[in-house]
What we know:
There is one protein chain. The protein has 16 helices and 15 strands. It is globular and about 60 Å long. Helix 7 (about 135-145) links the parallel strand 4 and strand 5. It has a seven-stranded mixed β-sheet, with helices on both faces. Strands 1-2-13 form a three-stranded mixed β-sheet. It has a three-stranded antiparallel β-sheet with strand order 12-15-14. It is an alpha/beta fold.
Amino acid sequence: MPTYPTQELFAEELATIESSGLTKAEKTIEGKQGVEIVVEGKTLLNFCGNNYLGLAGSELMERVAKEGIDEWGFGMGSVRFICGTSTVHKELEAAVSKFFGTEDTILYSSCFDANTGLFETILQENDAVISDELNHASIIDGIRLCKAERFRFKSSDMQDLEEQLKAAGKRRRILIATDGVFSMDGVSAKLAAICDLAERYGALVMVDESHATGVLGERGRGSVEKEGVLGRVDLITSTFGKAMGGACGGFTTGHKKIIDVLRQRSRPNLFSNSLMPAVAYAAKYVFEHFDNELKDIRGSLLENTTYFRTRMDAAGFKLGGDGTHPITPVMLFDEATAATMAEKLLAHGIYVRGFTYPVVPKGKARIRVQISAAHTTEQLDKAIAAFSAVGREMNVIQ
């Protein structure tokens, strides 16, 4: 195959990425997802997935998804408004709305699509959007697609948010956008204060609950429940791909009139194939059985999170987060230390990833540990022992 100048430019770009230490190397799982996985022929304990309730790869989800295949087939072969809407899609939307106590819900193939399909649909050139500086890439990309004037506030800084609201001035529509839980830190947004400011300045509020749905709040309704604002936010986006089954798919839920507009104009919904029926069926099962059959799982998740944090703290590690979320950042601060420690832990059978700049700010390098309800005490102890051994070897702890 001939080499063209364009290909050489791509090669240079890849070389720059590699020399900067920013290459993202995938690890291929041989078999099922779970808390114990096989990578390159080696059995590892998985501490870096979003499988918070342990449902991904579970026999329960396998059984339910097979039922979905039998009843609804493999795929829809079309977009929603042509011939791609199934009864199971409408039933899932109803189940999500009931779960959150909202008026209506619209499905997407991912929460990334839900976010990229939101802002340009409901905001116009004379509107304003105010975004937390640590928001997920999907919110950032969604905002880039819209013509509204953009403002950004320092993460969870309510004084700065109010300054941005004042700077936005009078608009046809102002939207405040924030993650419910910031994925690098496991910390919830200050949603009560955000809603107070939104009401004072006449703004709408959207919250991405991807890391919070099924995890936080007394009944698992997320950070909106944990922070006491369930019913006060205008729009919630979230995913079925983390706690609520672990497959794929996302949604936006909230006021019916806004959802109706999204059905008419949101491009990822209008021009993408419908969610696979079996995935929709399995996700519907999780939402419909969350408060009965699945209610004990969240208790196990909280117990595991508390157990891990308590013993890691006692071992001398500096932990980030607020202790309420299974995302547990082990703060190492130095970029090389985080990368090296993650590799050494892999040799101990612990699968974790180091996070360094630009994913996190300079000087804030870490290993992000994610706890699952499916982890056993023995597995948690093995991870703590490995962290302690490598930590002492690298003089991270005494």
